Amino acid sequence: MPPAPPVVSGEGSVEVRRGETVKLECHARGDMPITLTVAKDGKSLNTNDYRYSLEILESDNGVRAELRITSVTPQDSSVIACTATNAYGSHTHQMELKVQDAPEAPRDLRVTREGSRSVTVTWAAPPSPNAAITHYSVHVRVVAVNSVGDSPSSEPLTFRTEGEAPSASPLSVRAVGTSPREVQLTWTPPDKDTWNGQLLGYYVGHRKEGALGTGRSFSFDTVGVTGGSEESWTVGGLERYTRYIFVLQAYNAKGPGPLSSEVFASTQEDVPEAPPEEVVCVALTSTRVEVTWSPPPVHLTHGQITSYTLTYTPMDDHTGINHDLRAHSVSESNR
């Protein structure tokens, strides 16, 4: 094989809980010698932090980097980049480290409605680093009061709130036609404070542009969660050279959230499925003929017709035998 830059491989996304130890590895293969460096969020590792230890190990199979971090904190969440370089170039592989932590205290606690025997209490969701809030635990004590004074407090009552469907749609939705019958969609998950539970997956809907009906006319695929910072799905079985509308919904155990904004994409062109129609050949002179035709049906062209190829061959007047086949290309604009 010809000389080439090295290739670096490793994990894509790693999740770990606060206080645990994590080991990240990347492996560079290629023409030696190879120099392998590791960076955090685009900067050199802090070698003064005793929790970080980095080993670079060489073997017959290449070079391996092992980064070990003890007692991780949310501040360790970052993008770890391994860059391998040899005489022919360089290559970088990125790994996303997500440190999960317990949520902070709920915010903006308030009573929004008061009754003689009931109250309504509301609060705002707190930050929850890299782990969705699944429910809230509410502790209640009741004290009776009269003109003389207060009673002892009741025994505490603890209950959990129910979850609800996600309150936001997927973000940064993009659609690109990748073949005559496929469109690839990419998106990022909604903000975690809108998950309202554990995100289980997505519903990916599509329909042809111009089709009648409401959002219920979409055909939906069910897509699981990979846990990465970006999700993708390829919708197949589409019509060739056709414009489609796409929407997405995130869902959890309580159901689907709101639809995303609509995005549009067209499947790619394909070869025509039918020949030209109404082909007529008229002799004009002893050396000239005129050939006319109509395009194939629009629904069978599968794209923009740019030219036609005329294929013809001289024929022996006496034997009717065809001689060498000849071809001539005619652009659509010159017809």
From TrEMBL:
Residues 169-270, 275-335 form the Fibronectin type-III domain. Residues 5-98 form the Ig-like domain. InterPro entries: FN3_dom (IPR003961), FN3_sf (IPR036116), Ig-like_dom (IPR007110), Ig-like_dom_sf (IPR036179), Ig-like_fold (IPR013783), Ig_I-set (IPR013098), Ig_sub (IPR003599), Ig_sub2 (IPR003598). Coiled coil: none annotated. Keywords: Repeat. SMART domains: FN3 (SM00060), IG (SM00409), IGc2 (SM00408). This is Protein sidekick-2.
